[in-house]
Amino acid sequence: MVERVDTGVIGLNSKMEGGFVRGSVNFVTGKTGTGKTAFCASFLYAGALRGEKGIYVTTEEREEDIKNDIKAMFYWDLEEMEKKGLLKFLSIRPEIPLKVISGEDIAKVVKLYMYELISKIEEAVKDFGATLLVVDSLSLVESFIRDEYLKKVALMQFIDRLKELGVTSLLTGTIPEGQEVLSTSGIIEFLVDSVIKLDFVPVAEEFKRTLTIRKMRRTDHSIYIHPFEITKTGIRIIELE
Known about the structure:
Blueprint: E1 4-5, E2 20-21, E3 25-30, H1 36-49, E4 54-58, H2 63-73, H3 78-83, E5 87-91, H4 104-128, E6 132-136, H5 139-144, H6 148-165, E7 168-174, E8 194-203, E9 206-216, E10 225-231, E11 234-237
Parallel strand pairs: 3-7, 3-8, 4-5, 4-6, 6-7
Antiparallel strand pairs: 1-2, 8-9, 9-10, 10-11
Helix pairs in contact: 4-6
């Protein structure tokens, strides 16, 4: 039996044999505004409700901004979950270099940043006792590392370390406008265990959000496009008759 972890999205677990594989690294991607933050927050909040500890790492925004975004979307009491020691928010943003760097110095800066990112996540996971992790997002990391070889090696090492930590992880990424790739680099989707793609699809005179499971290892998953809605109580898959 493969142990599964609740996605936190109503109606989605049944589309993937019960949820994410325990200890797997999963990628949630889509264009801006498709619901990536809502998806990740749902994953952690569902875990907190059943007593699992989760950490939300943001690499681009402040902790308070992420929490305020989540509060604006849902009726959830995040403060209560934080007080109970079930949720933790952590901002790990890269520092802007004070001078222009090139050549071998770039590799050193990349190595230093990735080491800092992994070390801070590892420390937080161990100290907090987390079993669930969100890293939102990897797009900044992908953009920061320009060299394709360094980028692939850095992402491989990052994913390997998350698996060694034993946490079930959600990583987010952004699909560039007008492109068919699933991430900024076009690399990470090949390294992770699953890929969830979120979209805006025009329906009549409106745009509807949809979700597709593009890939999921060790899982007989749905291959259909599923419309979903973000309500004040959570994300819900809309079943089509």
